[in-house]
Amino acid sequence: MSFSATWHNLLENVEEVPTDATLVTPLSGQAFRVVGTQEHRVVVEYREDGERVPLERDQFETLVGRDRPGRG
């Protein structure tokens, strides 16, 4: 599967998450919610301090590349 297909699959799944859903990061246990999706990023807001953070497509692509043998 190409990264483009993976990214669009991620966007579709994120868009299905209810707007009032609280998610939790697996390592730090920080609560956050998705506040927006765009073609090249997902924007999240941390519940504790209200900080909004854009998670860019390029960041995800780098991580996926590191995870796949023979790539990155």
Shape: globular
Largest sheet: 4 strands, antiparallel
Q: Quaternary status of these chains?
A: single chain
Distance between the termini: 16 Å
User: Number of helix segments?
Assistant: 2
- The value of Rg in angstroms is 13 Å
Helicity level, as a percent range? 25-40%
Strand content: 25-35%
Query: What's the overall average pLDDT, rounded?
Result: 91
Q: How does the helix and strand content classify structurally?
A: alpha+beta
For the record, the count of structural domains works out to: 1
Q: Let me know the number of strands.
A: 4
Order of H and E elements: HEEEEH
Strand order of the largest sheet: 1-2-3-4
Q: Can you tell me the residue ranges where pLDDT is under 50 for at least 5 consecutive residues?
A: none
Descriptive labels:
globular, 2 helices, 72 residues, alpha+beta, 4-stranded antiparallel β-sheet, single chain
Describe this structure in words.
- The protein contains two helices and four strands, in the order αββββα.
- By secondary structure, it is α+β, with helices and mostly antiparallel strands.
- It has one domain (3-67).
- A four-stranded antiparallel beta sheet has the order 1-2-3-4.
- Strand 1 and strand 2 form a beta hairpin.
